[in-house]
Amino acid sequence: MGDFYERIIDVEVSGEEAAALAGRVVDWLVGEGVLTRERTRDGVYSLGAEDGHVPGPGWARAVADPSDADWLPGPVAVLLGRSHHTGGQGQYEAEYAECPRCGNRAVIIAYPEALEADPAVWRPFEEGIEAWRETGVGSAPCASCGALVPVTEWGWDSAFALGALAFDFWGRPPLSSAFLAGFGRRLGHRTVELSGKF
């Protein structure tokens, strides 16, 4: 058992602009009735968020199929601050990173032979991500072409993303493609969607 979430990550907003953008998006979601300004800690398990916005009367507008009685809408947590985001359950590292300069793919977790990250391959990425988290600037070298590439430019696997703003939709049916497209337009940046379970 557990609680499921769907996370929308803005992978382009700067750490300095994230809070103001989050406020505008929350205003829009409240205006659409998807959530309210009321906040609760119940049902929020997001690292980096103590509470979330209570669902609004129009919560069903955001989901693909609101008729499934097994899903009851949970809160929406807003995550601010530069961080790495993973999907699934218990994963910390990316499976791979692809160099935008030469296209080489650094395999970090060699599924299905290995279920854990190769520490030697992951370390430069981890150090670059930590530097980016602390300062807004961090890079990792490409083992193939030697380029020192900002961590925000690497191509990560579909269950890993870097961003300074994310929204966790807890306990809801899957979000609809129309809602996700509208959400991305409202952010004005490229987004990545992940799902997971606590």
What does this structure look like?
This protein is α+β, with helices and mostly antiparallel strands and 198 residues long. The protein is 21% helix and 30% strand. The chain is built from 3 helices and 11 strands. A 4-stranded antiparallel sheet has the order 4-10-1-11. Strands 6-5-9 form a 3-stranded antiparallel sheet, with no helix packed on it. A hairpin with a 6-residue loop joins strand 7 and strand 8. The protein is globular and about 55 Å long. The termini are close together. The model has no long low-confidence stretch (mean pLDDT 94).
Shape: globular
Number of helices: 3
Number-wise, the strands total 11
Structural class: alpha+beta
Helix percent band:
10-25%
Question: Which percent band covers the strand fraction?
Answer: 25-35%
Rg over CA atoms, rounded to whole Å, is 18 Å
Largest sheet: 4 strands, antiparallel
Q: Cα distance, first to last residue?
A: 9 Å
Sequence of secondary-structure elements: EHEEEEEHEEEEHE
Give the overall pLDDT as a whole number: 94
| Unreliably modeled segments | none
Taking strands numbered 1, 2, ... along the chain, how are they ordered across the largest sheet? Answer: 4-10-1-11
